[in-house]
Amino acid sequence: MKALIILLASTFAVSAGWPAPKAPAVPEADGYVEIPNVALAPTKNSTYRAVFDATRPAEKATALIPALNMAGSELNALATAKAPLRNAKFAIVFHGLAVDGILDDEHYRTKFGTTNPNLKAIAEMKKHGVEFFVCGQYLAGEKIDPKTLTPDVQLAADALLVLMQYQNKGYALMSF
Questions:
Q1: Is the predicted pLDDT of residue 13 greater than 90, yes or no?
Q2: What is the pTM of this model?
């Protein structure tokens, strides 16, 4: 489905005279279309602080969960604009049904019959300094063993408290 969307977006972009989307930082996420002469374009000197509240699952097992896709697409936007990715201060906090997206490959394959598409995106984003947390309260309530999750995600006591702490530090809340 994602490939079809990218193909359609690329076809539309070309037919409308728009350049094709670029995904230089996180190829698994949506690309970014450079649009000339816009208000508030990404800048090289700004710091971008965002905490992504990841609660929604992917539409299908072979797609990225929405929060990962959006964080990755914003990294692609900054990379396309030649902004240093060290200026992106992103954290993603998983709870609710989005936790399925951070299962290790063995447990994801058992549950969904396919490899986990989120793991490569998480690894790429981690290289760019993105922090990842999972809600311990959700895991305890659903009786999910933290050992079934990717080791790239840190166990937090409570997702909402992590979200509050980041917002108190000036991070914008993005909910997906």
A1: no
A2: 0.89
